[in-house]
Amino acid sequence: MSEKCLYKKAQDDDDLDTLSTVCFQINPGVQLREVPTNGEEYLLKVIKERQSYSTVTKCNKDYSKFAKNQSCFVKELPHAKAPDKLKPTIEWQNIQVADFSDVRMYISRLLAKKSLWPKNLDTVAIESNNINSWKSFFAEREPTLRCVLGLNQTLLDRGLEMLTEILNKVEKGETIDHKTGQWIYAFLACTRQPLVSDTVSILRNLARKCAELRSHIDPEDENANVAAAPLNIFICIVARYFRQYDLAD
Question: What do you get for the CA distance between the two ends of the chain, in Å?
Answer without folding.
Answer: 74
